[in-house]
Amino acid sequence: MKKTSLLLLAGLFQLQVQAQTPEAKMNTFVTKLMGQMTIDEKIGQLNLVTPGGFTATGATVSQNVEANIKAGKVGGLFGIYDPTLVRKPQELAVKNSRLHIPLLFGLDVIHGHKTSFPIPLGISSTWDLERIEKSARIAATEATADGLNWVFSPMVDIARDPRWGRISESSGEDPYLGSLIAKAMIRGYQGTSFKETNTVLACVKHFALYGAAEAGRDYNTVDMSRIKMFEYYLPPYKAAIDAGVGSVMTSFNEIDAVPATANKWLVTDLLRKQWGFKGLVVTDYTAINEMIAHGLGDLKQVSALALKAGTDMDMVGEGFLTTLKQSLNEGKITQKEIDQACRRILEAKYKLGLFDDPYRYLDESRPAKEILTPENRAFARDLAARSHVLLKNANQTLPLKKSGSIALIGPLADDRKNMLGTWNIAGDWKKAVTVAEGIKNVAGNSVKINYAKGANFTTDTLLIQRLNAQNGLVDVDPRSPEAMIEEAVKVARQSDVIIAVVGEAQEMSGEASSRSDIGIPENQKDLLKALKKTGKPLVLVLMSGRPLTLTWENDNADAMLEAWFGGSESGNAIADVLFGNYNPAGKLTATFPRNVGQIPIYYNHKNTGRPYEGVLLDKFKSRYLDVPNDPLFPFGYGLSYTTFSYSEVKLSQTTLKGNQTLQASVTVKNTGKYTGEEVVQLYISDPVASVTRSVKDLKGFQKISLKPGESKEVTFRITPEQLKFYTTDLKYDWEGGEFGIQIGTNSSEVKTANVQWTK
């Protein structure tokens, strides 16, 4: 009897201890709150709106949004920032709704908040996880100083098709690198604790496979095998879940013929049950409503499908708000399904501390101290320089001397409006640094700048109308193309070297900005051809949100620098690289094709049964008649002002068994005249397996810095974990056999050693 009593006491004590855990406290709080909520209030929490009446100087919220907030029919707002503006709707919710439930405030904070960093494709080209994490940390600090507590970032969609405009927001084509970047961004946004007021709820997107839209056309159909999903496209999302991301956004596309937002296998079976995700799932903008056009039914039907699939929050469409109660009454959905979605949203608010202090992100003294600070801008400048990829540098044309004269030419040479890049929602282009200003800042008065615009972005008037439909960032010079080129040629002949800053306007990439021709617009190319004829050294600074087709440019320019869209400090960063203040070390994370006919093109492709091996007249092989199979610039490619040599690969052993560890080393030497950084890349090939494998897969990298003449041995530790792959039954495992250990400067230029590894 005494023993039984002690056991009961111990059990009660254990229950009391468990009740004190943060998760138990949250569960108790949310359960009690939900017990007081009506069905309308629960459904209201599932409603995420954008205040249509919001302007910087007018009413904070439109009348209908205000009424819904008071009635407890709004769970969150997005598209509004600044603590003075955010305070009003938060006060409406806290002071006027029946249960005083605070709102979430979200925004697309994609590559910085008001301090704009390079576009994500550019950031990924740094291969610098520490700085990538810091960029998200700064963005979170600025966003929270501006009243936000939720950011719709990171976007981790794998993208193999540069026609797709949103490749600009991605980290490129590789799942390994993309997964590491996803984790770094989550750490940066969410920090170690939501107790800190400079951390935000991150939202990984777009779940899932959004980057595989057919023909590179945004919102288009996606159709792929499960093994392809798990091997190449799903890993970055899984990495974000493992890193503790607080929310997930569904994608617009279908998966297995069911749109993601209504896909129960995706949202419940995979995300929640298999991966263990416990946070909230929000749709993309009106994604529920768009399922009507997909052919899944009317608004009531598609809203019910989304809820039953496991989607919690409806962005803008108000399908949940207007139809779920009727569907509940008709037995199409259950009270449990509504409660579960409501609980997840309330839990997010609880974790952010909004029930303790709904105004904790609304300190009006913070913006002046924490946004667009000199320190933030200095970091943005450094990060932008590190994102640049040197594509060509014949005869050491770069770096330029800080003397003589420069012909600065091109539609982007003195443009301010297009420096930030796409999806810079809170960024102010008026505060961006132009290339012309950057050159003056870096080179000073010792360099004479002779400027001519040379060309508009395009002569396609319809395209200009489309580009200017949203924000009017494309200015058009009324002169004829011939007159502009004539002026540019005159300027070039008066100068020692030509810097032509050409490429895309920022809205030529990004959402709903797919292109079937990804070359530099013809009128800009006409300008370059005229400049080439002057015989002066021709340096191209390329701005784009995607890989471009650059065969003519590569054949004719003396040097080419891919600068992407660099953000607030773009002009200074470009000048830092051009004049050698920083030696470029960026490496491509997306393959540059020779022409659009090669697309999709990516390094980790598979072999066919008839692989082309370079014999020109060998007819029955997998090849093109009119262009080589290989790309113009491969994944991992990027030059430096110095040069590096690689030794042969040295293995710690050539036969291994089971869970042994292999050490693979190369000695890298700086054989040039400048101190430089190099990203040493590890690839592994598995030529014989139970399923066909990629020709190689990135499995590691190290970024090193070497002085002229300096050497360093770089060692990678390889375990069976890096040999694993998905089989046809989606088992993740490895098989014994021969493996190729490849180490090099990019995916095409590697040194290889083989190892036998039995299981």
Automatic annotation (TrEMBL):
Its EC number is 3.2.1.21. It is an enzyme of class 3 (hydrolase). It is found in: Periplasm. GO terms for molecular function: beta-glucosidase activity. Residues 678-747 form the Fibronectin type III-like domain. Pfam families: Fn3-like, Glyco_hydro_3, Glyco_hydro_3_C. GO terms for biological process: glucan catabolic process. Residues 1-19 form the signal peptide. Its main location: periplasm. Keywords: Glycosidase, Hydrolase, Periplasm, Signal. It comes from Siphonobacter curvatus. This is Periplasmic beta-glucosidase.
